[in-house]
Design brief:
The radius of gyration is 18 Å and the shape is elongated. It is built from six helices and no strands. It starts with 10 loop residues before the first helix and ends with a helix. Helix 1 runs antiparallel to helix 5. The protein is mainly alpha-helical.
């Protein structure tokens, strides 16, 4: 039995994979350059960004408060502190650490280095991340 012939990837698709991998690497390198805020949120201010609207006006943390801090902590190997800063952000940083080389190498090789996750697995992972992010927000909303 002969296997079906694999269609070669287009240059555009390969370029997008490489760009995505390099983009994730860039975010991880940026996280290395930032000093994590001891408050557990606010590290993004080092990038010249404004204070979070939720914090400044509503005096509560938003669901993404602490995500930049969690990335900055995780790249330093401080996993528990990263989870405390923002568990959802920590999950995204772990995903970026795994996905960056996978996307870059797959784009360069013009084939998936490992099999991509199925739609069901992707949906379950997205639902888990969203649930963790919202639960983290609910738990932190009163601890400003």
């Amino acid at each position: 039995m002969q296997l079906p012939e694999r269609r070669p990837w287009s240059l555009v698709f390969r370029f997008l994979l490489i760009l995505a991998g390099l983009g994730l690497f860039s975010l991880l390198l940026l996280a290395c350059k930032l000093d994590p805020s001891p408050r557990g949120y606010g590290t993004h201010r080092q990038l010249g960004l404004e204070e979070c609207f939720f914090v400044s006006r509503l005096e509560i943390r938003c669901p993404s408060c602490g995500m930049t801090t969690s990335w900055s902590l995780l790249v330093r190997g401080r996993l528990l502190a990263a989870i405390r800063a923002n568990a959802g952000g920590c999950m995204l940083a772990v995903a970026a650490i795994a996905a960056a080389p996978w996307l870059l190498l797959s784009g360069l090789a013009s084939r998936w280095i490992t099999r991509p996750p199925s739609e069901l697995v992707s949906l379950v992972l997205l639902a888990c991340w969203l649930s963790v992010t919202l639960l983290n927000w609910i738990l932190n909303i009163h601890n400003i």
